[in-house]
Amino acid sequence: MKTSLIALSLALSMAAPAWAQDTAAPDAEASDTSILVVGQKDAPIEIAPRGLAVSLGAQQLEAVNAFNTEDLMKYAPDFFVRKRYAGDSNGVPGFRGTHSTQSARTLVMVDGFVVSNFLGNSFGFAPKWGVVGPGEVKQFDIVYGPYSSRYLGNAMGGIVNITTRAPDRTEAFATVQGFIQPYRQFATGDDYAGFSAEAGVGLKQHDGPWSLRLTGRYFRNTGQPMTFLGLSPVAGGGGTPVTGAVVDPEHVRAAAAGTGIPGAPGTAGSPYFAAQSPARITQEQAKLRIGYENGAVTGQFLFAFWHNEDSQTAPDCYLRDAAGNAVCEGRVSIGAQSYIAAGANWSKTLRDEYLAGLKLAADIAAHTTARLAISTYQVPRTDTFTSNGPLAGRTGGAGTLAGQGPTGWWTGDFTLENRTARRALALGLTANAYRTDQTRSTLNDWTSAAGKAFSTRTFGKTRQLSAWGEAQLFLDPLTITLGARYDNWRAYDGGLARLGTTGPLAGQPVANAYAARSNEGVNGSLAFEYALGAHTSLQLSLATATRYPTVGELFQGSLNGDGSFNPNSFDPALKPERSKDANLIAVHDFGWMKLTGSAFFQRVDDTIFAFVGFNQNGITTSTFKNIALTRQFGFEGIAETRNWPLEGMNIDFNAAYIDSKTLRNPAAPAAEGVQFPRIPKWRVNANLRYDLTRALQGSVGLRYASRPNTDLFGLQRGDTFGFTSELFALDLRLNWQVAETLRLSAGIDNLTNDRAWVFHPYPQRTFLIEAGWRL
Which of 158, 184, 319, 752 is most buried by its number of CB atoms within 10 A? Predict the structure, then answer.
C-alpha cells in the first residue's frame, strides 16, 4: 500500500494543480480536437480520443434502421453488438477481440453517466441501452481501448458515450415505427411483428439559463425463438408415440466431421421437439433532462425511467400424437426409441429501472474548471416467474420466482481541469459502488408471488476508489499526453443463503459468507500525436489497465444436490485481469477521402472467463476462472469519402483483421494456441449514403464477420443453433423528406435473409416503416 501511494503521488504531481473527471465526459470547450477522430466533425467528441476514436452524428445516424438505440452504432469500425432481436436486453457490445459475453470490458455512458452493468460479466449484464430512445440521440462517441487514464479499467475493451439532445429553442418531435420479420427455421414458421412510438418536447428559456427536455417511448415486439429444445434419449421403452421431431442436418454433419457439440440436440439421436416461446417484449421509457447555463455555471439533471416486460408463454411444440394433438412434455417414443421431452417452460419477467444523475461545472479561475458529477442506476424490481413445464404454464401450476432488488450502483466524480493553448493539466477523484441481491423462491402458482417459499439467496457488494492525473502538452506539431491512475478496490458482504439440511436449522435459511477481498493498482498511459503537415498525422498510444472482478464473477457459488453449499463452485482466489495495450494510427486526408490505418496490440494477464477446467482444488468445474495469458493483435483500415465518386454520395468503409489467442491456460491446456472463441478473424462494416434528390436519400449498410470458434478449444464449428457462425447482412434504407417537418422512411435489414447464429439465432430478413415529425 505504501509503495502504491508513493507511486501515485509522483504520478499526480506532474498534473498538479489541475483536476479532471473520470466517467463524466469533458464539455465541448474542453474536449480534445484530435484530427484522428473518425466520423462527424460538426461537434467535438465527448470522450478523450486516445487510440482509435469514432464519432457518429446526424449524417451517420439518419442512415440506419434503428429499432433500438444500440443499432445506431452497427456500422462502426471493428465493432458489433450481440443483439438477437429488437428489444433484446442482452445486447453486449464487442470491441476488436472482446468476446460477446465479456460485458465488463466496456464502459458505456449516457451524457457522461454510467449505464454499464458491472454487477456481472456475461450476456445477462449488458449496458442499459433502453434508457435512451433513438430519437433523442444527438451523437455517439466510441473510443477503442484504455488509452486514457481518465477512465477505469473496465474500458479495457472500449468506451461508448451517448449524448442526448439539449434544446436550444422550443422544439418537439415524434417518431412512429412498424416492423415485421417473416421467420422460418426447422418446423417454426411465423411472422413476428412490433412497433414503437417516441415523442418529446424541449423548452429553452428566452434570454435565461434554463432548459428542459421531456421524452418518452413505448416499444413492443415479438422476437423469434431463441432456443430449440431437444429430446433426451432414455432406456426402457414406452411413451406416447409421436411424429414431427426435427433432425438438424448441420448438427449431423458437424458430428460426422468431429466439430459438433457433444450431446447437442438436433442430431439423429436427439432431435428437436420444440422451439422456445418467442419473447413478447414491452418497454416503456420516460426521461427528464433539465439544463442550466449562465456563462459561468453549467448544470444538468437527468432522470430516466425504464419498464420492461418479457412474456414467453407460447412454445412452438413440433410433436403430434396419433390424434394430431400437440405434445410438449413427458415420455414419448419415435419408432423403437423412447425419449423425455422437457424444458418448454412458460415465463414472464417484470423489471423496473431508473437512472438519476446530476452534473455541475464552473470556471473557478482563469483557464480552470471544477466539475462535480453524481449518478445512480437502480433496479428496484426484477421478478422472473417460470413454470415447471408447459402444462403448469397453461394451468397455473407450480413454478419458481427469481426476484432481484434492490440492486444497482452509484458513481461519483469530483474534478478540476486547467487548459491553455500550450498545455492541459488534469486531476480527478472518483468512486463507484455496486450491489446485487437476488432471492429464488418456489411457487404453487407460477403466475403469482403469493405464498412463495424461500429457496436460495445470493448477495454481494463491490466498491472502487480512484485517483488519476493526466498532462497534455501541445508542442506543435507534436502533442504528448501522459497519465497515471490509482485504483483501490474491495468486494465485501457477499454470501449465498439456502435452506439448512440438518440439525435444528433444517428447513431454515442458512447463509454461507464469502471472505471480503481487496486489491489496488497503479496504471499508466502515454500518447504521442504528430502532424506531418496539414493533412497527415500519426498517433501512438500506450497504456496498462486493471479490470477488477464484478460481484457476479466473485460470488457465483452454487449448491450440491443435497442443498448444501459447494465450496468448489467458485474461485476464492479470482484475480483481476491486467492488460498492456498499444495502438498505432496513421491518417491522411485527401479532402474527398480520408484514410485511417490502425494497428493494435493487447496482452491480458489473468483474463476472467467462464469455462470448464480445473479449479483451485484441482476439481473439474465450470465457473469464472483466470486464463493465465491471452493476446490479441490486429489491423484496421477505414476509408471515408465525401461527395465521391458522385456528388451527394458519402461512403464509410472499414475492414479489420483480428488475431486473438489463448497463450497460457494451466486450467485447460488444450486451449493454448487457439483463437479465442467468438472472435472472427475478419470483420467488415460499411455504409453508403446517396442523395437521390434534394428530398430523397438512400443508404446501403453492410455487416460481415468471418466464422469464429464456438468454444475455447476450437473444436466446435458449425452453422446452426448452438454454434457461432459467419455473419453477412446487407441493409437498405430510404428517407423521404416530405416537408421541412415531416420525414417518411422505409428499410430492410438482412436483405439476403442470411441465417446467422451467436449460439442463438440472429434476426432474419426484417422490414421497417417509419414516420418522423420534428418542429
Answer: 158
663 conformational bin, left if phi > 0, alpha if psi -120 to 50, beta if neither: alpha
Q: Kindly provide the b/e burial profile for residues 146-178, where b requires at least 16 CB atoms within 10 angstroms of the residue's own CB.
A: bbbbbbbbbbbbbbbbbbbbebeeeeebebebe
- Classify the C-alpha dihedral 671-674-676-679 as positive or negative: negative
The model's pLDDT over 646-673, given as tens digits with 9 standing for 90+, comes to 999 999 999 999 999 999 999 899 999 9
Grid coordinates belonging to 159: 468506451
Q: E strand or H helix at 116, and its extent? A: none
* Beta strands across the sheet bearing 113-114: 38-39, 53-56, 137-144, 158-164, 106-110, 113-114
Q: Which residue do the cell numbers 493487447 mark?
A: 602
Q: Read off the pLDDT of each residue in 421-442 and give the average, rounded to a whole number.
A: 95
Q: Strands (DSSP E) along 5-136, which ranges? A: 38-39, 53-56, 79-82, 92-95, 106-110, 113-114
| Of 250-254, 468-472, 608-612, minimum mean pLDDT range | 608-612
- In order of 113, 132, 237, 774, the CA distances from 174 in angstroms are 25, 14, 61, 7
Report the distance separating Cα 484 and Cα 427, nearest Å.
Answer: 10
Provide φ and ψ at 730, rounded to 5°: -115, 125
* HSE value, Cβ hemisphere, 13 Å, CA-based, for 577: 30
Label each residue of 23-46 as H, E or C: CCCCCCCCCCCCCCCEECCCCCCC
Number of helices followed by number of strands (H, E) in the chain? 5, 45
Question: DSSP letter at 135?
Answer: G
Bridge partners for 82 per DSSP: 92
Q: Which three cell numbers stand for residue 291?
A: 439544463
* Peptide linkage before 406 cis (omega within 30 of 0): yes
Determine whether 290 is exposed, middle or buried from the number of CB atoms within 10 Å of its CB (0-12, 13-18, 19+).
middle
Count Cβ atoms below 10 Å from residue 7 Cβ, excluding itself.
15
Strand partners, 121: none
C-alpha cell at 725: 457462425
Tell me what pLDDT residue 617 has. 56
What CATH number should be reported for the domain holding residue 36?
2.40.170.20
The pLDDT, as a whole number, for residue 139 is 96
Kind plus residue range of the DSSP H or E element containing 429: strand 423-443
Question: For cell 500506450, what's the residue?
Answer: 542
Range of the domain at 484: 2-774
Q: Are the beta carbons of 688 and 700 closer than 8 angstroms?
A: yes
Which of the 8 DSSP states describes residue 257? Answer: H
What's the total number of domains in the chain?
Answer: 1
Q: What is the sign of the dihedral through the CA atoms of 487, 602, 760 and 246? A: negative
- Calpha distance 363→702 (Å, rounded): 45
Q: For residue 579, what is its C-alpha cell?
A: 492488460
How far apart are the two ends of the chain, measured CA to CA in Å?
58
Euclidean distance between CA atoms 678 and 659, whole angstroms: 12
Burial status of residue 751 (CB atoms within 10 A of its CB: 0-12, 13-18, 19 or more): middle
**Separation of alpha carbons 582 and 633, rounded Å:** 9
**Helix or strand run (H / E) with residue 166:** none
Cell (9 digits) for 746:
422505409
- Whose cell is 484530427? That residue is 35
Taking the model in full, what pTM does it have?
0.92
Parallel/antiparallel/unpaired status of strands 53-56 and 38-39: parallel
Give per-residue pLDDT as tens, 634-643.
Answer: 999 999 999 9
Q: What amino acid is encoded at 39 in this protein? A: G
Cβ atoms 455, 443 nearer than 8 A: no
Mean pLDDT computed over 595-606: 98
In the numeric block, which cell numbers belong to residue 84? 438477437
Q: Give SS3 for 758.
A: strand
Examine the pLDDT at 10 and tell me if it is beyond 80: no
Angle at 403 between CA 401 and CA 407, to 5 degrees: 165
Is the bond preceding 549 in cis, omega lying within 30 degrees of 0? no
CB-CB contact of 426 with 150 (8 Å): yes
Spatial contact of 265 and 304, defined as CB atoms under 8 Å apart = no
